[in-house]
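FIELD: query
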Amino acid sequence: MIYASHGIQARAADRDAALKLCRGHYQIAIVSGDQNLSGSDLTGNASRYGLHYRNSRAALLGRLRDADLAEAIRGPNGSIELLLGSADERAVWLSQNKKWRAEPHYLT
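FIELD: result
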């Protein structure tokens, strides 16, 4: 497990399954942790097309939720992250990390 941001690696099987649901470089970058799920790191021309990127993030998160592979979580500093893993693993991780909370309606 666990979340695909800040250099913390998800389990290889979960990450590979999530990558198979990605469509395009931007979605791959989100699952890989190279782009923020919130879109806060979009700059230049990309920032002018924020709605298109938001729709892409929403579509990816919807596919990941449907496959029960991931959910959005909010960190103690307000950041939005992608939590990869099975539902049981995510529940255990969230119970152990009380400063993080699930965001079930993020981008829905």
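FIELD: remark
The chain has a mean pLDDT of 86.
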